[in-house]
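User: Second chain of the day. Same drill as before.
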Amino acid sequence: MRHAWTLLIIGAVVVASACSGKSERSEKRERDEAPDGGVTLSKPNTAISEDTLKAGDVRIVTTNGGVDLALIGDSISSGLSPEALRKVRRETDTANVTGSGFGAQIEKMVKGSVQGAIGTRVSFPVSAVRSVHYDGEKLVFEWNGEPRKIFEQAKMDGKPLLASFSPEDAKRFADAVNARVAKPKNM
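Assistant: Same format as last time:
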């Protein structure tokens, strides 16, 4: 019963947060999701793995393995790593829900909602970036035009997401992005 109440509370919080502040979020999204270098949300059919990378593409994963940051073609994206996606899918499999009562139905609803959202990736075009560098602690994006606030609120284990990659991976990612930014458009 306690498990059912926990899931009910989580479900209520998810619904309430989705409904609150919609106009404020819409204003911020209008600017960040503009077609001239804005942010998009997508749910690719396949997870980004080393097999999907081409020459010059790079994918790095946070030191805890939870989130990745990828440069693929002309866009940069971030989302749960393939390993984290597998774990969450396993833990939220609605086929593993036992019981048929109200609590079981809530659990299935919450787990089904999580299943529907976990593969979502945030992406933006490389053309929105002037450069990227590693400052000794974290990746720092320099933007063309108005700065994007894509990663500012994201935390991983209590520290900023962009400080959650190994120094070697962060430098490799910055080098790859800068090479892509410098590449002439007609090549």
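The longest strand covers residues 67-72.

User: Great, on to the next one.
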